[in-house]
Amino acid sequence: MKKILFLTAYPINNKTAGQNYSLKLLLDLSCNYNIDIIYWNYPNHEITIKNIKNLNVVMELNTNGLLKTLYYSIINCSFPLFTVRYNCFVHKWLKQNQNNYDLVYFDFSQTFIYSKSITHPHKVMMCHDIIGQKYQRKKFSFLYNWLVRMTERKLLKNGNSIFTFSSKDKSLIKSMYGIDSDIVPFYIGKEILDINLQNINIENYFVFYGAWNRKENSDGLKWFIKEVYPSCNGTSIKIIGGSLDIEIKALISNYNNIEYLGFIDNPYKIIAKSKAIIAPLFSGAGVKVKVIEALALGTPIIGTDIAFEGIDDIISNNRKFLINANTKKGFVEEIKNYSNISSEEKATAQKIFINNYNEGKFIEKIKSII
Q: What is the average pLDDT across 219-224?
């Protein structure tokens, strides 16, 4: 059985969309390959792969402190985001052991720094986000953004195969860095596919869904509660996802119709029964998995242009399910004027979306690599 080394920047679990993709990919790969894993810890995140066959954890590591990260950034001429998980021991171990593997998989941009260490013919990089775009939207100085882009370009050029999640990001990698990449879809899990949408009764609430430790998610939610919700007070909202900060919890406590449910292992029936997901995202990069999962549940999304990036090419122009709002006024109007769709419409929309989307998984492409 062929062997894969899997380096990932976070513990493998379903706490965030990116980590959940890694988990499902590993479950998929473990059916046909032996896999060794190196991962980095993250606060309050445990791994959930200890009982998966053909998987072996080689190393569990911690991120560097500030001074160590800055030191590694200087010696590697790199932006600190890309060196916070750099470790000399891992660097040495990779050089010594690379030939034991048929493929080396670098998961998340924070692991790409290790691609410089080895000369393996099958170095695969998964770009969950295009970091250059993400920082450009933060409107830092030209020099700051130049360093981010220079580092990302330098590291991506070390890969033999680059993967991303949308044609939008594929085009960005080409236009920003002159590098070709390939597209793979996110996994649409059995938990979603097993829901019979024709038997779902649409209830009178909207949903916010995300990992709230991510600033682009929490900033959007905070803005909505402060700026939008007072103008549509009385609308029922359910908030799903872990790590909601104290300030947002305090804002929520002022309203009887906003309910924080916390992290839920399987939130999909709650989403399927909702009127729509609300996604006021004004920063970040990459395809938003909450949007993919909502569409796979036949559930509309009221969101910004950034929330819908990379989605238009797979939604068949069905704007009924992608409801655009970019301002306070836009969100208030769309929520107040929202018209429910039927269970039958949900089921039809789900079928169309999944038929257009759920093809070309990484497991199918790996066969042409090794």
A: 96
Given a contact cutoff of 8 angstroms between Cβ atoms, the answer to whether 82 and 151 are in contact is: yes
Domain count, the chain: 2
Q: Which of 54-63, 164-173, 291-300, 358-367 has the lowest mean pLDDT?
A: 358-367
Q: Which residues contact 316 (CB under 8 A, 6 or more apart)?
A: 352, 353, 356
The pair of three-digit structure tokens given for residue 356, joined into one six-digit string? 């257009």
Name the nearest CA neighbour of 215 among 257, 245, 259: 245
* pTM of the predicted structure, to 2 decimals: 0.83
| Beta pairing partners, 161 | 124
Sign of the Cα torsion 294, 300, 305, 309 reads: positive
Instruction: Tell me the pLDDT band of 319, cut-offs 50, 70 and 90.
Output: low
Beta strands (DSSP E) in 197-264 are 206-209, 237-240, 258-262
In a domain, 166, yes or no: yes
d(CA 300, CA 306): 16
| Chain segment 243-258, per-residue pLDDT in tens | 899 999 999 999 999 9
- Could you give the CA distance from residue 362 to residue 104 in angstroms, rounded to a whole number? 14
Structural domain boundaries enclosing 147: 3-184
Determine the Cα–Cα distance for residues 54 and 31; give it in Å rounded to an integer.
8
The DSSP annotation for 60-107 comes to EE-PPPHHHHHHHHHHTT--GGGTTT--HHHHHHHHHHGGG-SEEEEE
Structure-block tokens of residue 214: 């991510």
Measured N-to-C along each axis, helices 17-29 and 289-296 cross at an angle, to the nearest 10 degrees, of 70
**Average pLDDT of the segment spanning 326-350:** 90
- Residue 292 belongs to some domain of the structure: yes
Q: Distances from the Cα of 138 to the Cαs of 133, 134, 145, 284, 358, in angstroms?
A: 9, 7, 9, 9, 32
